[in-house]
Design brief:
CATH architecture: 3-Layer(aba) Sandwich
Radius of gyration: 18 Å
Number of domains: 1
Helix content: 25-40%
Order of helices and strands: EEHEHEHHHHHEEHEHHH
Mean pLDDT: 84
Oligomer: single chain
Distance between the termini: 42 Å
Length: about 300
């Protein structure tokens, strides 16, 4: 039996994974875990400390040395019991969007999982041919002015790549009702992490593996990258570098293609365990040579997305 731990992204709690519930096979047990400050879970102490006077170039949780109380070490302590293997059962972490960045980074602070699935995320969130640093800076400024309105806009923004965005938005709102809300400082810190975090060094060693450095992690962690084929938050070259693209889905395949997503996660989890390594792909060329990316069209900016 394989234990899958599902980790959500910015401003959306673990209920986003609910549509996959009826599509899991008998070979897996599944647990969707909220990050601290999400889904009613207590936030990390001083979660917003690094953002009080932060620029848009900071790195949020990745500023662990400057802000140990709100850094990855504190996150690892909070998440460790939920992410660890139980009774020797293989465990695969599945991180989506911001959750993928944080999950990859935690492989250096916690006992290694048996595999890592990165969904809807490249080595960085910002990309010159995707969500630009300017677009994210504009969004962060909008969030500071009006967090509620900005969060609602972000939901529409990330759903713009689904086959029927309005239907996807209705499904998402239904899943997130009642609105438990999220800790404001946690959301601020999450945006800082999206702005500055770079897991390229973790992904740049053995192809298809994360170079974790936890004490019991002598070998790299197998990693697989997935995304929706029309994810509006990823540059075309980033999507092309993924191990698999889910057809008929954007940034939220759990809403538009839950069966396909569940099948892909399970298939890659089994493959990582059976082969002892992630599938080979073009990931190495993408992560290792960002200058080779074509002149792709930028995604819509914060003020350009319509309902």
């Amino acid at each position: 039996m394989i234990r899958l731990v599902l980790l959500s992204g910015w401003a959306i709690d673990a209920r986003i994974w609910s549509p996959l519930a009826s599509h899991w096979g008998t070979s897996v047990t599944v647990e969707a875990i909220d990050w601290p400050g999400m889904g009613g879970r207590p936030a990390l102490a001083d979660a917003g400390a690094s953002d009080a006077d932060a620029s848009d170039a900071d790195t949020g949780l990745f500023q662990q040395q400057a802000h140990p109380s709100s850094g990855l070490q504190a996150l690892a302590k909070a998440m460790g019991p939920s992410l660890s293997s139980r009774d020797g059962e293989p465990v695969i972490w599945v991180g989506w969007s911001l959750g993928a960045l944080q999950a990859a980074a935690l492989t250096r602070h916690l006992p290694a999982p048996d595999g890592l699935v990165l969904l809807g995320m490249g080595p960085t969130f910002c990309h010159p041919n995707g969500v630009t640093t300017t677009a994210l800076a504009d969004f962060r400024a909008a969030f500071r002015r009006d967090p509620t309105r900005a969060r609602e806009h972000f939901l529409r923004w990330q759903l713009s790549g689904e086959p029927t965005p309005r239907d996807a938005l209705r499904r998402l709102r239904s899943l997130l009702t009642p609105d438990i809300g999220a800790d404001h400082a946690t959301l601020e810190q999450g945006l800082a992490t999206l702005a500055g975090a770079d897991i390229g060094d973790l992904l740049g060693g053995v192809p298809g593996h994360v170079s974790g450095q936890a004490p019991d992690n002598a070998t790299p962690v197998p990693v697989t990258s997935l995304c929706g084929a029309t994810d509006p938050l990823l540059a075309p070259a980033v999507r092309a570098a993924m191990d698999e693209r889910i057809e008929g889905a954007g940034h939220c395949p759990m809403l538009s293609q839950p069966a396909r997503l569940a099948e892909a996660i399970q298939r890659h989890a089994l493959r990582m365990l059976d082969e002892g390594k992630a599938p080979t792909s073009r990931r190495g060329a993408h992560y290792g040579d960002r200058a080779a990316i074509d002149a792709d069209r930028e995604v819509q900016g914060f003020d350009e997305v319509t309902p």
